[in-house]
Every structure is written in structure tokens, then in C-alpha cells.
Amino acid sequence: MARSSKLVNSETVQHELDKAEIKGPDAILQLSDYGLLRVGSLGPVEINWLSNNAAASLLKPGFITALEFEKQEDNWRRVSTGCHVIDKVLGGGFPVRGITELSGESSCGKTQLCLQLCLSVQYPISQGGLDAGAVYICTEDSFPAKRLQQLFTTYPQQRMSPSHIKEDLPKFGDNIFIEHVADAAGMRQCVLGRLPKLLSHHSVKLIVVDSIAGVFRSCYENNEMKHRAEDMRTVGGQLHKMASQYKLCVICVNQVTASDGPQRSVPALGLAWSNLVTSRIQMHRSEPDGADSASQRSLEIIFAPDLQPTSVSYTISEAGVFGLAKLN
Amino acid sequence: MFRPISTLPLPASAQLLLRESGFLFCEDVISHRGVAPEARSILQRWNLHSGECWNTLTSPPQTLNSLDLWQEECTSRSIVTWSKDVDSILDGGIPFQVITELCGAPGSGKTQMSLQLCVDVQIPESLGGAEGQAVFIDTACNFSSQRIRAIADACCKHCHLLSRKNQIRDFVNFNADSILNNIHLISIHGIVQLLAAVKVLPQLIEQHPQIKLVVIDSLAFPFTCGETCNTLDRTSYIYRILSDLQKLAVHNRLAIVITNQLTTRIIKSTPNMSELSPALGESLGHRVTQRLLLGRIAGNLKAAIVLKGNNQCMSSAKFQITEAGIRDL
Questions:
Q1: Which of A93, A156, A314, A319 could cross-link to A78 by cystine, CB 3.0-4.6 Å?
Q2: Residue B68, pLDDT score
């Protein structure tokens, strides 16, 4: 690099680029080396220098070793669910990375768990939260405000320091931003327009989309599947981008669809969506065996880059969703 | 047969000047007396005027005969996947100097296999490994330090056991920390950053000549997520990335592993019919040397099928993913 930069007159190179209207490192890299040769009078040495510099300027901080990566504290931070049994299965809580999908039949507790996380994320980092607010995007029903109000009083009392929470109690509601979206176009507007603006003004570390299937399952005809896939990629890509830019946790609730495979139900929206999902978690609810027993609920990790496929059973109480420790 | 000037990688304005001065073929420019004076004055602007530079521009690559290549192939070892069954369908593991594609649906073990390979490439030479370093280009936020440490720990334990059994010494520096330290990681977002990362790879390899494996997990993600990119551009970007990687692979004896998603392809001739196929189009299948399809049977039980390979036709194997990494059943 040092040797070649001596051979290159950066002013003439810049002049050539201006003449060809190539602006910025993005445009340089989008052209191949042969494309750059065709631009004008840039020689091979100059092109090599130019594209290497352009590449280096886009890759800050560049390559690090996995050992250095491991020491970075803010990688794979997690939002605690407030229940140590579920947290243990999830490796500490919901990951701050990519998109986490939470799927399950209706009334199995998906929304309950998400509401719980909206509170949990506001706790200080020492208590499993991220000390920041939450955004809740509703697409199916109206936001369950009543249940949230109930959780304000019931849920935190399970936590460690009640004195600390007592004085903070009214703040919980102020840090949850709620948005209602009816269709795919509205969803695009929300994640591409309004959400980035909100994130730049408020400290938000959790985005819940309840549910992603609500917008993408209904608005399309059968022959519009390609269109649907493109829209899902736009929305999913933007969520990924925000997740890494602001280091926040993204949870997309999904519905399930009947399947003829070994599992009775699989998450909806097909491969086009699941290719965008980083971690997939499914909640199950089976009918009670007898008249006196309650229905069985379990939370299962289908896939995640860092977790083994496991499952845990849970119950829903007034205070939220809580795991049941295994008896054996 | 004369070689036209237009086939050379010269700037457009140099081509024009040479053509205007009457130089149409390489043989016009250079003779036994060296570079013609007129051409020399034109090429001076790009520091290509010496006969030596000109020769490197025009000289054909060195010829090798197939016996040399065969002998080299016989002596070169592959990177083991730590599953004997998978290794056997791959004829010993992931080979060097070629591009191997791992494709599969989400949860089929692509990332786990990539992480495993990053560790396995570092097995010391005394135990039959490549004792190399690895590069991991993470496009979809999939790299987990927790997982890589678990896999590295298990690998170290096994290697230390083996070395004790076979009484091999000088094994002190091989531990989980050293394995993690030998994995060069970059996390990128979007197509342009992916192009940039591939661009800076030669420099990285120059600094760390021990690098023996480059993984892109996943190649498809930047193209199928976010930015819309037309198919023609997409194909040209992918071909550029793969040909740069291929050059590196041959030149530095690297193994290249890329992961790819599956996509639902709608069959137009029969309505309401669809099939699963690897993403990024048919063109990618032509470019990669080996294609391995991974699938999930149930939970941790996975299967691998060779879709394309030089040495064997369609064959399959089962493997599992445990806490310690990829293992046989």
C-alpha cells in the first residue's frame, strides 16, 4: 500500500473521477476493475490503490479476531424475560441481534410475553434490562392497554428491588411507544419513515411487531407472492439495519400454519420470511388431557445461531409468562 | 496469430492513443528491440513503458501438466468436518483451492458447519490438520463467540488427548484462546460492504499468510435483504466476488466456503406448483465447484447431500449438532 501510494498522484485520480461523475467509495466499488479501466486514463496501479482505499474506508473498524470480538461487551446482549427458567433456555433472554421470531397458535401467550419484555427492557442493565424504552407495532388487534396497565402493578413485584421500582412506576408507560399499522404499505411507511425518526430522538432498545403475519398474510392475492417476498425483504432488511445500528432487540410475532410434516404447525409466511429470521422461537399450546388438568404450554427454540434446540413449559399468570422448572 | 491491443487491461485513453498512433496488436508494440519508442512515450503516463511491465501484461500463465496437478491433489489434505460420514461423501472433507457452497433452509446447520470449519482448519499439522487461520465474513449477524468457544474447547480437548496418546510434543500453544485469536472476523451490512470486504482480503492474507480458509456466511443475505438489486447487477456482483475468491483460492491454496439460502421457485408451466432451490439463481450453481445441501431432519439431527461435486455423484450422510459441534450419529 505504502509503495503504491507513492506512485499515485491522488489529485489526478480525483480529477478523473470527477470527470466521470463517480462519487464516493460506493460507486467505485460497484464498478469492476475493468469498468474502472473504461472510465478514462486510470492505470492498473491507480485503480488498485483507488479500490483498496475505497474498500478500507467502508470497512471501519475492519477485521478483528474472534477473541477481540468475544471481549466486546455489547455483542449479544440480552433482554431478560423476567423469569429465570425461560431466560436459562434462551441463554439469558431475547438476543440483541438480528430478528427474533416468536410464533405460535392464537392465545398461546405470544402477546403476553412481548408486553412483559416491554417492561423488562426498561430495567437497568444490572437487572437484565437495557435501560431504554420499547416500540410496539400492532397489526392485528388494538393494543392490549388494559393488560399492560395490569402488568404495571403485578409484574414488577416479582423482581429484585421493589423500592427502586416503586418510585419509577409511572415512567413505564411513558417509555412504550405504540403504533397501529393496518397493511403492508403502512408497515413500510412505519419502518422506513417514522421509526428511524423516533429512534434518533428516544432511547429505544426493543421493537415488537405483533404480528408480522398480520400485514403480510392478508394483503396479497395468490399470484402476488413475488411482490409479497419483496415487501417482506424491504421491511426485514430495514429491521435488521436498525437492530445493528442502534443495538436493539427486534421481536416479530408470527402466526402458525398447519403442516403435513412431522410438526403439527409451522410458522407462517414461508421461506421468504424465514430466511430473514436470525432466531426462531415457537410457543405451543396443547389441549388438556382430562377435564381437571390445565392446558400444556411450552416454548421451543427451533433454531438460533448460538442455542441448542430445547424447550421449556410455562404458565401464564396475572404477573406474566413464567417457566416451569423441570421436575426431574 | 497476433493479439489485439484491446484485449489488454489498459485504460481506455491509453487504448485510444495507441490505436491512433497505429498500434493495433501487441506485436506492434514490442519486438526483439524492446518497446517501440512511440508506444513508450504513451505508456510512460501509466508507468508501463518498460519491457518488463509489458511482458507481465501480455505473458500467458505458467503451464502445468495434469500429472503435477494430480500429485498435488493427492498430497493436499482437506479440512475435516468432524463427521466421518460427511467427510466421506466429500472425499475427505472440504477441499482447498475450490469454492464449496453450503445451502439449506434456516436451521439446517449452515452456520454451525461454518463455525466448525473455522476451528477444524487450525488442527496442528502433527495431527494431520492444516494448521491454518480462518477468515469469517459475517453478513447476517450469525457469528456467536459463545458457540465458537464451545466448539474450540471440544476440539482442543480431543487434540490434546490424541497428542498424549501418540506422544506428540510441542502442543502448548494450541488452546481455545489461540483458536479464537486465529479467526479473523468482519461483520458487514449490505452489498457494497461485501464487495469491499472481498477487495481487502488479499491484503489481509498478505499480513497473515497462515490463512487457509475464507467463509462467507451468508452470501445470499445481502442480496435478498433490504436493497433491491436487479438480477443482472446481482449476477455480475456475485461473479466478481466469486472470481476474486477463486483467484485467491488457487494462488494461496485456500479453501473457500460460502453459505446460501433456499428459495421457493414457482414453476410456471404447472399452476400452484413450487419447488425449493438454492437462492441467487442458476448462475451460482455453475460458478461453485462443490455444492452441499444441508437439511434438518428433526431437532439436532441433520442431513447433507452432495448436489454438485467433481469426485462423486449424489450421495448423502446424516450428522448431528451437539454442544461440542458437528458430530457423527
A1: A93
A2: 86
Element (H or E) spanning B145, and its range? helix B145-165
Instruction: Give A8 or A7, the one with higher predicted confidence.
Output: A8
Mean pLDDT calculated for residue range B232-237: 88
Q: Are A1 and A50 in contact (CB under 8 A)?
A: no
A37: nearest CA partner in chain B:
B11
CATH number at residue B117: 3.40.50.300
Contact B57, A37 (CB under 8 A): no
Residues B299, A280: Cα–Cα separation, whole Å:
13
Amino acid at B226: G
Q: Is the pLDDT of residue A5 over 60?
A: no
Residues B114 and B257 in one domain: yes
Nearest Cβ partner of B47 from A42, A45, A91?
Answer: A45
Q: What is the mean pLDDT of residues A85-93?
A: 89
Longest distance between any two alpha carbons in chain A, whole Å: 85
CA angle A268, A269, A273 (to 5 degrees): 120
Q: Do A70 and B47 touch (CB under 8 A)?
A: no
Q: Which residues in chain B have Cβ-Cβ distances shorter than 8 Å to A32?
A: 236, 240
* Alpha-carbon A263 to chain mean position: 25
ipTM over 0.90: no
Radius of gyration of chain A (CA): 24
In this complex, the residue of A63, A75, A278 whose CB is nearest that of residue B204 is: A63
Paired with B215 in beta bridges are B136, B257
pLDDT, one tens digit per residue, over B109-165 is: 999 999 999 999 999 888 888 889 999 999 988 888 889 999 999 999 998 888 888
Q: Cα distance from B291 to chain A (closest Cα, Å)?
A: 19
Residues B106 and B11 grouped into a single domain: no
Q: Which residues in chain A have their CB less than 8 angstroms from residue B186's CB?
A: 59, 62-64
CATH label, A78-323, candidates 3.40.50.261, 3.30.70.100, 3.40.50.300, 3.40.50.720: 3.40.50.300
User: What residues does B79 pair with on adjacent strands?
Assistant: B94
Q: What is the pTM of this model?
A: 0.89
Residue B203: pLDDT band with limits 50, 70, 90: very high
Do residue B196 and residue A272 have CB atoms under 8 angstroms apart?
Answer: no
- Contact flag B200-A55 (C-beta cutoff 8 Å): yes
Instruction: Supply A109's cell numbers.
Output: 401467550
> Based on the domain organization, do B154 and B176 belong to the same domain?
yes
Q: Which residue in A75, A237, A271 is closest to B226 by CB distance?
A: A237
Question: φ and ψ at A65, to 5 degrees?
Answer: -85, 160
**Residues B24 and B170 placed together within one structural domain of the fold:** no
- Residue of chain B whose Cα is closest to the Cα of A46: B46
- Chain B residues lying within 8 Å of A234, measured CB to CB: 226, 228
B243 within a domain of the structure (yes/no): yes
Q: Do residues B115 and B325 lie in contact, with contact meaning Cβ atoms separated by under 8 Å?
A: yes
Q: Which residues contact A67 (CB under 8 A, 6 or more apart)?
A: B177, B180, B181
Query: Half-sphere exposure of A303 toward its Cβ, with a 13 Å CA cutoff?
Result: 27
Q: Is the pLDDT of residue A123 over 80?
A: yes
Tell whether the torsion through CA atoms of B94, B96, B101 and B105 is positive or negative: positive
* CA trace torsion A216, A222, A227, A232 (10° rounding): 20
